Amino acid sequence: MALFRFIKVVSAIILLLPLYAAAAQDIPRLTKLPLGERWYSISKEKEQTGFNRLEIRDSEGGYEITVESGAKMTILGFSRDATSWERYLVNRDLSLKSFEVDEVIDGKPMKLKGEVTADGVRVSITAAGSTKEKTLKTREAVYPPPVVNIYPLMHGGEKGKNLRLKMLDIEKVKIVGVKISVIGVETPAGGAATVHLQNDLYTFVDNDIWLDLNGNTVRESVRHGLILTQAEEGETVRKFLSTRPLLKRR
User: Fold this and answer.
1) pLDDT value at residue 225
2) DSSP state of 205
């Protein structure tokens, strides 16, 4: 009887092995970015206050990523009014090659243009009627903001894993470190599976992100939903923008 029970236990373990293997592969390792255009609403306390448009195209040796966004809101007594147009050229591993940015933050316009060199990121900054050059020194790969969410899916993200990268902060014009934590795959009742991530882009505030298994951001929540970025149909966002044309940069 003891031998019989042993055989049953071993058989059960063998049958379960494929299930555990499948579970370990729930978070896919993507080999390319999801191409095309996607639209997002930005809301504060469930009231839409802005938008984001993301477009990804194939480019020679990598990708061209264009981002257009605008938002106007007040948080903890501080008013925030920002619009931007951004274009990035990245390598196949998502590391930055070159970029250009046209933004207005709280009424102050600024234009950036730059490229990655052997010494770091060389940037031309035009603001307040003058232009200056600076080099953000680093010998590590640098990544633009639009690829931070998808980075773990293309670099071996697994449940419980922490990844770190250097990101170009276009508002502060500096390179910052970002920590990304892979929470795991979540499948809500009646919904599709998503990969749940967290990052530390905002000091002392939780930033949660959910992506579909193709790498498209579905939802991003700052401070447990205080600020929510949500995937939308393009027509829905365009209707919103028709009533707030000042949110568009171009």
Assistant:
1) 79
2) S
Lookup: tokens for 192: 């599709």
Say which DSSP state 140 is in.
Answer: S
Cα torsion through 181, 184, 187, 193, rounded to 10: 80
Backbone φ, ψ for residue 6 (5° rounding): -60, -45
At 177, list the tokens: 């470190």
Question: Rounded mean pLDDT of 43-62?
Answer: 95
In angstroms, the CA 197 to CA 51 distance is 21
Q: Return the closest-CA partner of residue 184 out of 1, 16, 26.
A: 26
Is residue 180 within 8 A of residue 199, CB to CB? The reply is yes
| Domain locations in the chain as residue ranges | 35-243
194 has pLDDT over 80? yes
* SS3 per-residue string spanning 155-174: CCCCCCCEEEEEEEECCCCE
Out of 9-13, 57-61, 112-116, 129-133, pick the least confident: 9-13
Is the CB of residue 199 less than 8 Å from the CB of residue 207?
A: yes
pTM for the model stands at 0.86
DSSP 247: G
Calculate the alpha carbon distances from 171 to 64, 91, 217, 218, 222 in Å.
Answer: 20, 22, 22, 24, 18
